[in-house]
Specification:
By secondary structure, the chain is mainly alpha-helical. The chain is built from 15 helices and two strands. Helix 1 packs antiparallel against helix 2, helix 6 (164-181) packs parallel to helix 8 (200-217) and helix 6 packs antiparallel against helix 14.
C-alpha cells in the first residue's frame, strides 16, 4: 500500500511539473517535459488496468489517426502524437483519473500562489523571483527600471510560465474544478492570479467564471466581493497595468496586437487556404492549436474530433474553456495540451467522491 501511495504521489508530481518544464530544452529537440513523460510512462508500466470504454477508444483512434497523418505530412507535428499517448496512458493506469484530478488542482493553486507572491515581492521589496526565460523575461529586475518599458503597462507576468496566456491555460483546468466543487477560497486565489497575470485568455476565463459563479449561487454577494477586490487592485496597480490587455483588442493591419497576431490573421490565413484533407500547415504567423488540429486531421476530421470531445465532456464549461484556448493559443506541443485532453475527456466533474482530496 505504501509503495502504491508513493507511486501515485510521484505520478502526481510528474504531471504537475511537466507543463512548467515544457519551456526548457535539453539539446536541440528534446524538452524536459519529454523526460518527465518518459519517466511517467516507466512508472506506470506496473499499474496498467486493461479495460475498454469510450475514453480509451477515443484516445486509441485519435492516436492512430494522428500517426497516419503525421507520417504523410511530416514529423513536425509529432508532439501531437505524444499528447494522445499521454491521454491514453492516463486512462489506462489504475487510479489515473484521480492522479490527474489532484495534479490539475494542485498545479493551478501552487502556480497561482507563486504568481501572486512574485508580483507582491516585486512591488513591495523590489525583489524579482520570477523564472529567468532569457530574452522572454520582461519583468524588470527592479522597480526603478519600469520607466524603461512604459511604466508597468508592458509587464508580462506568467509566474512559472514564460507567457501569461500559458499560465492561464494551465490554471484554467483547476479553475474549472474549483468552480464545480465550490472551493471558494481556492477559486478566488486562481481568479486573482489570472487578473494580475494580465492575460487576454485569463480575463476571458475570469469573466465567464464570475458569471457562472453568480448564476450557480444565485447571489450577487459574489459580484460585490469581486467588484471590491477589483477596485482595490485597480487602485493599487493603476490603469497602466491593464493597458497592454486593452491594446491587444486592436486589429489594425499595422498593429502587432495579441488578438491580431494570435487569432485574426492566422485564422484568416487558414480559411483562405483551407483543406478538407490532412495537410502540413506552413505559415510564418502564429499557429493556433485549433489550426494545427484542423490541418493535421484535415478540416472535416478535425471538426469531428472537436465535436466528439464536446460529446465526451457533455459540452461542459470546461469544453468552452478548451475551445477558447485552442482558438487563442498555440499549445499543442506543450505538456498542458496532453493534460487538457485527458482532463476534458475524463469528465471528473461527475465523480463527486474526488472533490475532498485537495
Amino acid at each position: 500500500m505504501l509503495i502504491s501511495g508513493l507511486l501515485s504521489g510521484l505520478l502526481v508530481i510528474l504531471l504537475t511539473l511537466a507543463p512548467i518544464f515544457s519551456q526548457f530544452k535539453v539539446g536541440n529537440n528534446l524538452l524536459l517535459q519529454d523526460i518527465f513523460f518518459f519517466v511517467f510512462f516507466l512508472l506506470s508500466l506496473s499499474n496498467f488496468s486493461l479495460r475498454f470504454n469510450a475514453r480509451i477508444i477515443f484516445f486509441s483512434v485519435s492516436l492512430l489517426l494522428s500517426l497516419v497523418s503525421v507520417y504523410f505530412i511530416g514529423f513536425e507535428h509529432i508532439r501531437l502524437v505524444f499528447a494522445f499517448c499521454i491521454g491514453l496512458l492516463v486512462h489506462i493506469i489504475k487510479g489515473g483519473e484521480k492522479i490527474l484530478y489532484i495534479s490539475v488542482r494542485l498545479g493551478a493553486l501552487l502556480s497561482s500562489l507563486y504568481l501572486i507572491l512574485t508580483l507582491a515581492l516585486f512591488l513591495i521589496l523590489n525583489v524579482n523571483i520570477s523564472l529567468d526565460f532569457g530574452e522572454y523575461s520582461l519583468l524588470p529586475n527592479t522597480w526603478s527600471e519600469i520607466d524603461a518599458i512604459e511604466e508597468n503597462s508592458q509587464i508580462k507576468l506568467g509566474g512559472a510560465f514564460r507567457e501569461p496566456n500559458w499560465f492561464a491555460v494551465y490554471a484554467s483546468m483547476g479553475l474549472y474544478s474549483f468552480l464545480k466543487s465550490n472551493d471558494h477560497l481556492k477559486l478566488l486565489i486562481v481568479i486573482f492570479a489570472l487578473v494580475i497575470a494580465n492575460s487576454s485568455y485569463g480575463h476571458f476565463l475570469v469573466g465567464v467564471s464570475i458569471f457562472y459563479w453568480i448564476i450557480k449561487s444565485r447571489s450577487f454577494n459574489i459580484l460585490i466581493l469581486i467588484a471590491t477586490l477589483a477596485f482595490i487592485l485597480y487602485s493599487f496597480l493603476g490603469f497602466s497595468f491593464f493597458e497592454r490587455t486593452l491594446n491587444s483588442f486592436q486589429l489594425a493591419p499595422d498593429n502587432a496586437s495579441s488578438y491580431g497576431v494570435r487569432i485574426y490573421y492566422p485564422w484568416m490565413d487558414y480559411f483562405q487556404n483551407i483543406s478538407l484533407l490532412p495537410t502540413s500547415y506552413e505559415t510564418s504567423s502564429f499557429a493556433n492549436t485549433g489550426i494545427v488540429l484542423l490541418s493535421v486531421f484535415g478540416f472535416l476530421f478535425g471538426l469531428i474530433f472537436v465535436l466528439i470531445l464536446g460529446f465526451l465532456s457533455r459540452f461542459s464549461l470546461l469544453f468552452l474553456f478548451f475551445v477558447a484556448a485552442i482558438i487563442l493559443e498555440g499549445f499543442y506541443g506543450r505538456a498542458e495540451f496532453a493534460i487538457y485532453l485527458s482532463f476534458l475527456v475524463s469528465r471528473i466533474q461527475h465523480s463527486s467522491n474526488h472533490t475532498h482530496i485537495f
